[in-house]
Amino acid sequence: MNASEKALDYFHQGFNCAQSVFAAFAEQTGLSESEALRFSSAFGAGLGRMRGTCGAFAGLCMVAGFCQGNLSGDPAEKERIFALTRTLAEDFKREFGTLSCRELLHMDEEMEASARPSERTRAYYDARPCERCVAFCAARAQELLKSN
After folding, report:
1. Residue 47 sits in which domain range?
2. b/e for 54-86, b at 16 or more Cβ within 10 A?
């Protein structure tokens, strides 16, 4: 199973988009599956279902941080990971048009008053680009790990 398939498998099990991407790389990052799932759990649905930055992209950024994140306060180290994140963001926006979960889902501001996740039905999957976002971010994360 490749990384995109593994990430989609997590997503179809009901894990959020960030968990699905990040947990697909638990072994490579030295985490257990449960640690990776727990660590990334708050980043789904645009951070806690507030529909901000796409959770799949957040999962990709967690892998990017593992690969090239700074280990000191040195500005040059921070610049390296920030530059990589910006490159990844441009790639994502080129593919999907936005980083915003709300915009990806074509939602207006008033629609998400609750933190309660939506029921996962065929209609849920058909109406959202989430599967494509998860697969795209997992593939990019796999490329990062191979080049690291």
Report:
1. 3-147
2. bbbbbbbbbbbebbbbeeeeeeeeeeebeebbe
